[in-house]
Amino acid sequence: MQQYPVIPEFREKYSVKVGGVTVGGGAPVVVQSMTNTDTAHALKTAIQIAELHRAGSEVVRITVNNEAAARAVPKISEQLDKMGIVVPLIGDFHYNGHKLLNAVPECAAALAKYRINPGNVGRGSKRDVHFTDIIEQAIRYDKAVRIGANWGSIDQAILARFMDENSQRKNPLPTNEIIYQVLIASVLESAALAEKVGLPSNKILLSVKMSQVQDLINVYQLLHQRCRYPLHLGLTEAGMGSKGIVASTAALAVLLQQGIGDTIRISLTPEPGESRTKEVIVAQEILQTMGLRHFVPQVTACPGCGRTSSDFFQHLAKDIQTFLREKMPEWQKTHPGCAQMQVAVMGCVVNGPGESKAANVGISLPGNDEAPVAPVYVDGEKTVTLKGDNIAQDFMQIVEDYIATNYAA
């Protein structure tokens, strides 16, 4: 069974440019997302891309599955320009990418990166020919390429090869370990072919996606040891709601803590009618709670207990969090650095003053049987006590004044 050399830890990952965004090479972990619109509807797709980008997606992937979608790509770019949105677009190609990129050169030129799945780029002798066609387009237009294997669409030729080799072993490996080796071989062999065709190593990213947490952790740990290409992380088909969020967080947090991963996507199934931006917010919150990046001032809030029968602090915590996220696009330009700010919204006297003093700005609301007043702490010092019907508005103003004073442009 083919083995790949282990790369010494001190060797830094390659740095890949995806449009104006740097991935790998020690750059901050990049947040990406994907549209679910019909790409052929250029305006509708551009509107969703803009929504995702405004929520914090730094690159956005779109499906390019037929000629209508390919011809819409430059129109989408034009719409984004009119909207003042500058974000790299990734073309997601399966089965017919070689045909579409050759047939619609303006699509090939408009995209910042091509995503290829080596498991479905072609069968038999056509596989390398089709793959080479796509790589040649990437070279021609100076584009990055993500070679992304997925356990659900695994390269059958490589799988057969590894299964045959495994059957000859005295102690055959378990099926899941064979799958890891097949996925790794699929992307590394494809990357080697891409470089042989002429694509520079600093134009290549890899991914090996699986849908189970432990499998994803295991396969990425193995791949990380065997290459210097930047790695895209994501638990494929993560699921809906809390299940998808928890599973993605459990898998990615382990890998990110180990220094594995250069760009991430949270593949949530949206609830009916739910905004696609939730996957962006979850990705940001994973990175921020781990201290890897800062996107918006972080709100510490207590869960509530028998001391806090009023839900006022819950509403205030939600309102202040929404307020901060909505203001961040403006503050990023006018008040750089404010995303590192800490805000505390606490519900009673037990932990309220302590948590509030530890934050940049904190409020300790009254619990049951406490005086109906709310002391506010700024950088550890009590500055004012709020009461009455305008506590929420007054506290938000204190937060905004703090940002204006301490994070001036």
Automatic annotation (TrEMBL):
Q: Which residue numbers delimit the IspG TIM-barrel domain?
A: 15-283
> Which parts of the sequence belong to the IspG C-terminal domain?
299-400
What sort of enzyme, by top EC class, is this? oxidoreductase
Q: Which UniProt keywords apply?
A: 4Fe-4S, Iron, Iron-sulfur, Isoprene biosynthesis, Metal-binding, Oxidoreductase
Q: Which GO terms describe its biological process?
A: isopentenyl diphosphate biosynthetic process, methylerythritol 4-phosphate pathway; terpenoid biosynthetic process
**Cofactor(s), names only, from the UniProt record:** [4Fe-4S] cluster
GO MF terms listed in the record are: 4 iron, 4 sulfur cluster binding; 4-hydroxy-3-methylbut-2-en-1-yl diphosphate synthase activity (ferredoxin); 4-hydroxy-3-methylbut-2-enyl-diphosphate synthase activity (flavodoxin); iron ion binding
* Its EC number(s): 1.17.7.3
Q: Give the cofactor binding note.
A: Binds 1 [4Fe-4S] cluster.
What pathway does the annotation place this protein in? Answer: Isoprenoid biosynthesis; isopentenyl diphosphate biosynthesis via DXP pathway; isopentenyl diphosphate from 1-deoxy-D-xylulose 5-phosphate: step 5/6
Does the keyword field hold Metal-binding?
yes
Q: Which reaction does it catalyse?
A: (2E)-4-hydroxy-3-methylbut-2-enyl diphosphate + oxidized [flavodoxin] + H2O + 2 H(+) = 2-C-methyl-D-erythritol 2,4-cyclic diphosphate + reduced [flavodoxin]
Which amino acid positions bind [4Fe-4S] cluster, per UniProt? 302, 305, 348, 355
Which family would the database say this protein is a member of? Belongs to the IspG family.
Chain's role: Converts 2C-methyl-D-erythritol 2,4-cyclodiphosphate (ME-2,4cPP) into 1-hydroxy-2-methyl-2-(E)-butenyl 4-diphosphate.
By what name is this protein known? 4-hydroxy-3-methylbut-2-en-1-yl diphosphate synthase (flavodoxin)
Q: Which organism is it from?
A: Ostreibacterium oceani
